[in-house]
Amino acid sequence: MTGILRDGGCACGAVRFTTRGEPDRIGLCHCLTCRKAHGSAFLPFAVFAAEQVEVTGDLADWESSPGYRRRFCPRCGSRVVNANGDEVEISITSFDDVGVFAPQYESWVIRREPWLPPLKVPQWSHNRGD
Ligand SMILES: [Zn+2]
Ligand SMILES: [Zn+2]
After folding, report:
1. Could you tell me the distance, in angstroms and rounded to a whole number, from the CA of residue 59 to the centre of ligand 1?
2. Sheet with 60-65, side-by-side order of all strands
3. Ligand with an atom nearest the CA of residue 128
4. Domain limits of the chain?
5. pTM of the full predicted structure?
6. Which ligand has its closest atom nearest to the C-alpha of 112?
7. Can you give the pLDDT at residue 1?
8. pLDDT digits (tens, 9 = 90+) for 58-86
């Protein structure tokens, strides 16, 4: 498989990943689970096919909904990759470089913090496509 390589990892460095090629899509989620799991107002993520992503280091995980596993570094607690069937979602803030990707849509905007303005991208009240 060809394509640009991009590196990232958890905060402590015990878990590292490399992605190859471009993501299928890039979203930003305001749902309660993303907010709580990431300790953040929202989760911006890039979606890759599983075979585009290589991960090294131990990961713990939590199945937050059927088939959707949020994987994190057991040492520092950073959420690193979310596995969803044959796709992998990676927070765009887990990459080593700043400004790698920008969201193309927002989902669960009914949970947006009122002080946070919307981006100029398609807005979904719940999941993308709902
Ligand atoms: Zn770590
Ligand atoms: Zn979410």
Report:
1. 9
2. 60-65, 68-72, 79-84, 87-91, 43-49, 25-29, 105-107
3. 2
4. 5-111
5. 0.93
6. 2
7. 63
8. 999 999 999 999 999 999 999 989 999 99
